[in-house]
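pinned: reference chain
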Amino acid sequence: MKIATAAYPLDWLDSWAQYEDKLAAWVADAASNGADLLVFPEYGAMELSTLDGVEVAGNLQASIQSVSDKMEDVAALHLKLAAEYGVHILGASAPFHGGFAKPVNRAEFYTPTGKRDHQDKQIMTMFERAPWGIDGGGPLKLFDTALGKIGVLICYDSEYPLLAHALREADFILVPSCTEALAGYWRVRIGAMSRALEQQCVTVMSSVVGPAAWSEAVEENTGMGGIFAPPDTGFPSTGVLAEGTLNQPGWTYAEVDRERIAEVRKNGVVRNRSHWKEQETRLEGLVNQDLL
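pinned: its structure tokens
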């Protein structure tokens, strides 16, 4: 199978048709290059706030509500494109209000057979806690698909090993991200690469890139696409299957064989995933040693 992961710029949109054309062009491009799984980034949906004008797009809380209100229309468009091109799509995440006291950060997953489900972010960054007012949503999910078992850790979630271990049956862990600074990009990338090592799976990082001066929420963005694996049997020694160019919009692609994931888990030089529980027995003997 072939994976496409996005370095996605946020655009000013003057009409819904303009958004339809943009998304269709991105999906068509990936599909024409043979991609089976397309991964869009965290908060890539924030550009939809521009459809309500400058005052809404430039106001944090108004833009959050604006985007949330449009997500059913966004889902219909993604389902149409997934079916038309025969691809699985992780859509760009968005703040979503439905049924919660506070909005959550939600990424929707779409299949070419017309099915959809979602993954909510688990742990909020400092800016999401305040001033955004975003909260943790529903639980982690493991999606059983025609491409394999897929989990999603949205941005900051990828920096937490226990969340990834809960998804240890996943062949692929998708990591949509939105990071303002280079340091933020590297925190998430290091997290994604570490989770690939620990769970002996493939992780897929997507990024929002470039400026969005009209937004109070996502005005500066740094990143690129990356696809990572354990640096072990059957995979590159660096653990990097593919990486894009920093802040250059477009798709990054990698061919992935699920049999290699099964093989490295069974016969890898190291067996981090199967040896995971040995940590717990070693910690039982922890000694606080005073050397002062």
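why pinned: Residues 2-283 form a domain with the Nitrilase/N-carbamoyl-D-aminoacid amidohydrolase fold (CATH 3.60.110.10). The mean pLDDT is 97.
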